[in-house]
Amino acid sequence: MTRDTIFALSSGHGRAGVAVIRISGGMARTVLERMAPPLPKPRFAAFRHVRHALTGERLDQALVLWLPGPNSETGEDMAELHVHGSRAVIQDTLASLGGIDGCRLAAPGEFARRAFEAGKLDLTGVEGLADLIEAETSAQRRQALQQAEGALRHLYDGWRQQLTAAAALLAAAIDFSDESDVGSDAARRARDEVEALQRTIRSHLDDGHRGEIVRQGFQVVLAGPPNAGKSSLLNALARRDAAIVSDEPGTTRDVIEVKLDIGGLPVVVSDTAGIREVTGKVEQEGIRRTLGRAKEADLVLWVTDGAAPAVAPPAMLSECADRVLMVVNKVDLLGSRPPRPLPAGAAAVSALTGSGLDALTRSIGSIAAARTGGAEAPPLTQARHRQHLESCCAALDSFLSSPLDDIELRAEDLRRAALALGRLTGSIDVEEVLGEIFSRFCIGK
User: Contact at 8 Å (CB) between 371 and 325?
Assistant: First the structure.
């Protein structure tokens, strides 16, 4: 199939020591022969002068790579120009490439899409690659790399093979329907296979969303009465002035977020409005948002003033009581006075002096690690995966809850289950999701 040769800057924008410009398509060899002759040995870096394709003007000195297809990332002929990372060099090199007939600037994610179309990546691998580019913590990097290298693909392909085996048993039951012993035995074996597979997929789904938490961040909400020092605690954890601090009750009315890296895990801490009885509509809305965030959070830090009477979490938060950690703030104000007995498991801190913050941070990290670890199988990372696996389980439920006598209908149940798994990896037509997935990439990947 004839199509444009694409090119793009694949390294970061802005001044740098080296910038990488990638080229993929049928014109890649011609580009190198015109801009950086002679053509280097395949897969060996060569030092070349890079010249303008039309004027012959020398643009830079660079390392050049020639990567002929199909043994390349996109399956096509590819080339890379490792030029100096000044804006002028990059701009003029890209302009020269754009002046060659048949070459154009790549769209976002177009290199990865061509790799997918060439069978170099499946959809789960593409999504893992996108997450790897966006990874901000070690846990995100490890999870994304595992997915990009095919961990989920191997898992889902194995399940699809099990479905194929069960479908083959049903086909045998149909073929030998005139021999009741053979047909019924094959159908029972198929049912056993499907029951075991359904348990495995249900276990995979029932993972506490650990993969999605690593990908999106462990959500921690600071909640409590007004003037308990929630905003000061947020600033202390973030080590910067992220929230406005004031003695006036009701200062925080909207949710303020900061992202932290605790023990390699991504943690998103949200400061929220103080919970109290109010009449003002704006503060009422802030409290409504506080309660909504707290109910959805992975962990709620109920922050109280150690020098004030104890305030228990409101009844509205009772449904997330197992996700609440009590934090007594402002212990520096207690002086020599004996502190009141702390609730069991509570953390005593001072956002002003930093006392107890290290212990609180370790507690948050331990809770987050317990929530996201402990399983050997690669985790679910995307809502899209969960949706297709739920569809697969619904088809398997139909198979197991319906009479095997309608064997053709049960074969259709297995076909629908396999179809859902195929959509996960892209082994069937999934055109409707391709645009959404690849649009997440930067240009040049």
Answer: no
